[in-house]
C-alpha cells in the first residue's frame, strides 16, 4: 500500500477515542523538539504558519489544514535521533553526517506511525517534505504529483524559511527577496510550480514572516486559521506580553526558561499565565495546551 493510500485508509469520519488520545501527544512531541533544539522549534513554527496560509489559498479542507499544521510543526521531528554534534556542526558538513541528516524525514514518519497508525496522514506529509518535483529528493525519489500535496506545501515553506535562517552549517542567510527569487528559479524543477507563486503572494501581502523578522503575533495568528476547536476569539484579546508568554509555552518551555528569555521574574510569568488561563476558562498549562492544540479535532477517525 502506498503512502497516500495509507493516509486515506486511516483518515475516516467516525470519532475514535484512541485517535483523540494519540492526537493529544502532538503538542508534547512539538515541545520535545523545542527542548532539544530551540532554533529548529522556532523554524517549525514559521513553516507551520506559512504552510497553513498556503493551504488556505488552495482551498484545502479543514482536515487537511489541521494535518498540514501538525506535519509542518513536526517535519524535522526525525532529527531528534541525530547526534547533537551533527546538528550543530559549524561549516561544511561531512558526507557521512549529511547521509545521517537525510534520514530524518523517514525517521520522523516511522516515529509517528510507531505511536499510532491513526497519525498516518501527518506521517505521510513528514516523510514527503524533502521530495522534489523533478524526482531528485529523498527518501523515496518521488516526482511531480506522486509527491503528497501536503509534503509539497511544506517543502516550499521549509525551503523559504531555511534560506533566510542562519544555521551552523551555513552561517550566512539571504534576505526574503533573495529567498523568493531562489524559489522562483527552482519552480517546476525542485518545487511544485503551483505553490511557489502562492508563497510570493503571501509574502507580498505581509502574511509570511521570514527568519530575520520573527513576529510572535504574526506567527501565532496562524493558529486562528485552523478550524474547529483551535479558533478562539480570546486570542485577539491577549496583550503583547501575554502573546509572548503563550508562544513560549506552546513551544514546550517551562516558566523558569520563559522568565529568563523575557528578562522578567518567574512570578511575572505566572501572573501572565493566570490571566491567560482565566481568559480561556482553564486552570493549568496542560488544559490550555490541550485546548489550543485542538486535539479533539486534529484526528477525527
Please provide a written account of the structure:
With 301 residues, the protein is mainly alpha-helical. It has a domain at 3-212: Hypothetical protein af1432 (Orthogonal Bundle). It is 58% helix and 0% strand. The protein has helices at residues 3-9, 17-23, 26-36, 38-57, 62-73, 84-87, 95-101, 104-115, 120-128, 149-163, 176-186, 196-204, 216-220, 240-250, 255-262, 266-280, 285-293, 295-298. Helix 3 (26-36) crosses helix 4, helix 4 packs antiparallel against helix 5 (62-73) and helix 5 packs across helix 10. The model is unreliable at 1-17, 213-231 and 295-301 (pLDDT under 50).
Element order, helices and strands?
Answer: HHHHHHHHHHHHHHHHHH
CATH homologous group name of the domain at 3-212: Hypothetical protein af1432
Given the C-alpha coordinates, what overall shape results?
Answer: globular
Radius of gyration: 19 Å
Residue share in helix: 55-70%
